[in-house]
Design a protein that fits this description.
single chain; about 900 residues; alpha/beta; Dna Ligase, domain 1; D-amino Acid Aminotransferase, Chain A, domain 1; Glucose Oxidase, domain 1; 8-stranded mixed beta sheet; 36 helices; 32 strands; about 45% helix; about 15% strand; binds phosphoenolpyruvate; binds magnesium ion
Length: about 900
């Protein structure tokens, strides 16, 4: 154990670590080392590794201190030598900063302590050395405040309480008639330190530590502990970072930006993180320390003249006033600015990415405290990648990998105006089911959404849950909010398909259809009230929040072309209407992987014919009704084939249980009875007879086609006739007929017989032929494990991972919301298996099915059409599982294309 290196020194253009060691040294530590190696001025220091953080949680505080003490003491000696000061000296004290640094940046999640080493003796020496007692005492009081908060737990006692230190500051301000912190004199600050320390003794029962080494160990362990604080845990959960990573601790000599008007501190970006524009930008404060810039107590000034002018324009400040009151660093300290500009250029060129940098100017000397790849918006991410490519800074593959697929979403949907949303009141939160921003007046019924739209009104459809009957209303509304349902609930799937904003499963909402109200806690909203939804975060806001349309710039198209160049997987869309298909095609879909034909049944008067078919007494009655549906379906299929111009179109035969289509309320049942010329009682009886205890496992999927083959006949005829009509127009067609919910190869065999017989009938009638494939969905576990038998019949497989997840895990896709939050909290599940493919279970079945299927039918075409087909990590799995394509809702097509390219490029590496 003794030869494990736990502490890495850096300083004076030398370093034991380097920029590649992010896992061990954390992002900050690795880059501090690298900056030294490339000759950038960095205060000397050392990094305690992330492995020690893990050891901290197994060996405890004392165990870890014993383990690292000799190495830390040795590293501290090197810092002392380089800085010409001594840690713990009473005459020439070296002060240190202690900061966290995980392998990825987790801004603001963990703790930092500055000015460590300050005590009753050091403060006098610093006052003497700097000739600035106010600065010395201010540094001391900042240290006691930070250390008291982070290490000694001096937090407010309750939600209503003030921070104990801020309370003292406020009291002293009041007593001395002071408005601004900067007005405190050295003597005031001395008094403040004494009062802070007394507060510590009172609250903790222990005196504030005066010994610098005791301070240091306390701080180091507190940083390790902050890895497990609530917000860090939450942040990791949100970003799916494992707890095992741990944080490193960076202990570094202090440099001071608060030593007077020749000192300053700032934060800058080498490009604009919001827009991606290639412009150096950032903020600074003269005579300030570390966190002051972000704390927002004083208004920071812009670093460049250009930035300063833009800022002033926004504020409505004229040039003269700007120059006098808010000059840029470029104007105030031109020589230091020039050096900073050179360094930022150097850093971006060296790291080949936009850098987020922190710096301090101590008495006219510039020090760099941090550089890291800066966080950015989706828009900025795309622009920067494509501009850096054209500048020659990065190559094509790097440009593709630079853009996170999920971030593309921000570019595709309307978004909330940033300022407006910051001011909006959050009412509750549900699942971010379908991204985008929507605002409208509350309606509770689908037909109201339609009627209100006709009257020029904007609506949000609020439902306990949605059913296919609500489709038209969902289409008419700007957004959909449901109290129940998960990420693959009807509302979520349909909304994503439409590219419509949807928040589902907002469990805190009580919907009262009768009263036409929704209640959240003690807030009651009624029909007609305005609300806004953020489908990317799941937030529900009160009132009307302004939105702005997405702008798909040229860079987006260029990026998509590159993604296609490197991806192996093809990307198709789940689209049910020619309109969705058009949208998908515009986003680059290379075919349709799933057309859910039942979704076509809800438009216009079609539902009537469908109901007639379902409620018919016998085959003859069904055929009569089906004959009405035939031309309608044929027309829709023609539309799809035309839009897709010869790209494959997979049409799935009817899937859902029939009782979903019939009316459930007396009023509608009576209307239908009148229309069909039968008694209300008869309709009521029929509807009741169709009800199932467990419809998801009931009379649905190919079980419908096998019990009522005339449905399959009608649908096949519609598909084949449509394809032949389109072909006649000179447009190529590529037809794939897909049979749902097969679990036994004989189910498919029977359906194939009906399909082939019908197709041959049409060919004979028209004296012509077209090619078509018959395949199946693999969504029943038995189908996956008997894939060899099924592949004897099926010409392609499409994994329906919504049902396959439901049946493999035994979790109802509509009810998972009831226990998922608790399962996530307890760590029983790492993520929602309906969003992110369960690779171990469902994934194993997919691999097995692909292997067995291709064993029987060489090169069997395999795809996925469950919701996972548009989720980046699931797409990566599909790449490795050797699938040919993924299929997802139109608005996720670009994301899947990029994710497919990422998977291929990562495998190359
Ligand atoms: C599936 O089960 O994954 C699928 C695509 O079918 P549906 O969601 O329509 O059941
Ligand atoms: Mg299914």
């Amino acid at each position: 154990m003794s030869n494990v290196k736990r502490v890495y020194s850096f300083g004076n253009k030398k370093a034991e670590g380097n920029g590649k060691m992010k896992e061990l040294l954390g992002g900050k530590g690795a880059n501090l080392a690298e900056m030294n190696l490339i000759g950038i001025p960095v205060p000397a220091g050392f990094t305690i590794t992330t492995e020690v953080c893990t050891e901290f949680y197994t060996h405890g505080k004392d165990g870890v201190i014993a383990m690292i003490k000799p190495d830390v003491e040795k590293a501290m000696k090197e810092v002392e030598a380089q800085m010409g000061m001594e840690f713990g000296s009473t005459t020439n004290p070296l002060l240190m900063s202690v900061r966290s640094g995980a392998r990825v940046s987790m801004p603001g999640m963990m703790d930092t302590i500055l000015n460590l080493g300050m005590n009753d003796q050091a403060v006098e020496a610093v006052a003497k050395r700097s000739g600035n007692p106010r600065f010395a005492w201010d540094s001391y009081r900042r240290f006691v405040q930070m250390y008291g908060d982070v290490v000694l737990g001096m937090k407010p006692q309750s939600k209503e309480d003030h921070d104990p230190f801020e309370e003292i500051i406020d009291e002293m301000k009041a007593a001395k008639g002071i408005v601004n912190d900067t007005e405190f004199t050295a003597d005031d600050l001395k008094e403040m330190v004494a009062r802070f320390k007394a507060a510590v003794t009172k609250q903790t029962g222990k005196d504030f530590p005066n010994d610098p080494w005791e301070q240091l160990w306390g701080a180091v362990c507190a940083v390790f502990e902050s890895w497990m604080n609530e917000r860090a845990i939450l942040y990791r959960q949100m970003h799916k970072y494992p707890a095992e990573w741990g944080t490193a601790v960076n202990v570094q000599a202090m440099v001071f930006g608060n030593m007077g008007d020749n000192s300053a501190t700032g934060v800058a970006f080498t490009r604009d993180a919001a827009t991606g524009e290639n412009i150096f930008n950032g903020e600074y404060l003269v005579n300030a320390q570390g966190e002051d810039v972000v704390a927002g107590i004083r208004t920071p000034q812009q670093i460049t003249i250009e930035g300063s002018r833009r800022w002033a324009k926004l504020q409505g400040i004229g040039e003269e006033e700007r120059k006098a009151k808010y000059p840029s660093l470029e104007e105030v300290m031109p020589a230091v600015y020039k050096e900073l500009d050179e360094i930022q250029n150097h850093l971006e060129t060296y790291f080949k990415d936009m850098q987020d940098i922190e710096f301090t100017i101590q008495d006219g000397k510039l020090w760099m405290l941090q550089t890291r790849s800066g966080k950015r918006t989706g828009e900025a991410m795309v622009r920067m990648a494509m501009e850096m490519l054209s500048e020659g800074l990065i190559d094509e593959k790097t440009a593709v990998l630079r853009v996170e697929p999920a971030k593309l979403d921000e570019l595709l949907h309307p978004v909330f105006d940033k300022e407006a949303v910051a001011k909006a009141k959050v009412l509750t939160k549900g699942l971010p089911a379908s991204p985008g921003a929507a605002t409208g007046q509350i309606v509770f019924f689908a037909d109201d959404a339609e009627a209100w739209k006709e009257n020029g009104k904007e609506t949000i459809l609020v439902r306990i849950e949605t059913s296919p009957e609500d489709l038209k209303g969902m289409n008419a509304a700007n957004g959909i909010l449901t109290a129940r349902g998960g990420m693959t609930s009807h509302a979520a799937v349909v909304a994503r398909g439409m590219g419509k904003c949807c928040v589902s499963g907002a469990g805190a909402i009580q919907v009262d259809y009768k009263a036409r109200t929704m209640t959240i806690g003690d807030v009651v909203l009624k029909e007609g009230d305005w609300i806004s939804l953020n489908g990317s975060t799941g937030e529900v806001y009160e009132g009307k929040v302004a939105t702005q349309a997405a702008d798909l710039s040229g860079d987006f198209g260029k990026l998509m072309d590159l993604a296609n160049k490197y991806a192996h997987l093809k990307v198709r869309a789940n689209a049910d209407t020619p309109r969705d298909a058009k949208q998908a095609f515009a986003f680059g879909a290379q075919g349709i992987g799933l057309c859910r034909t039942e979704h076509m049944f809800f438009e216009g008067d079609r539902i009537k014919a469908v109901r007639e078919m379902i409620l018919a007494d016998d085959e003859q009655g069904r055929r009569k009704a089906l004959a009405k549906l035939l031309p309608i379906q044929r027309g829709d299929f023609e539309g799809l084939f035309e839009v897709m111009e010869g790209n494959p179109v997979t049409v799935r035969l009817l899937d859902p249980p029939l009782h979903e289509f019939v009316p459930h309320f007396e009023k509608e049942q009576r209307e239908l009875a009148a229309e069909m010329g039968v008694s209300y009682e008869k309709i009521k009886e029929k509807v009741e007879a169709l009800a199932e205890v467990n419809p998801m496992l009931g009379h649905r999927g190919c079980r419908l086609g096998n019990t009522y083959p005339e449905i399959t006949e009608m649908q096949t005829r519609a598909i084949i006739e449509a394809a032949m009509n389109v072909k006649k127009k000179g447009i190529p067609v590529h037809v794939e007929i897909m049979v749902p919910l097969v679990g036994n190869h004989k189910e498919l065999k029977y359906q194939k017989k009906v399909i082939d017989a019908t197709a041959n009938e049409v060919f004979a009638e028209r004296n012509d032929k077209i090619d078509y494939l018959i395949g199946t969905m693999i969504e029943v576990p038995r189908a996956a494990v008997t894939a060899n038998e099924i592949a004897e019949v099926a010409q392609f497989f499409s994994f329906g991972t919504n049902d396959l997840t439901q049946m493999t895990l035994g979790f109802s896709r509509d009810d998972i919301g009831k226990f998922l939050p608790e399962y996530l909290k307890k760590g029983i599940l790492k993520q929602d298996p309906f969003q992110i493919l369960d690779v171990k279970g469902v994934g194993q079945l997919i691999r097995e099915a692909v292997f067995k299927g291709r064993g029987v039918r060489e090169g069997l075409k395999c795809g996925i059409c469950g919701e996972h087909g548009g989720e980046p990590s699931s797409v990566e799995f599909c790449h490795y599982a050797g699938l040919n394509y993924v299929s997802c809702s139109p608005f996720r097509v670009p994301i899947a294309r990029l994710a497919a390219a990422h998977a291929a490029l990562k495998q190359e590496k």
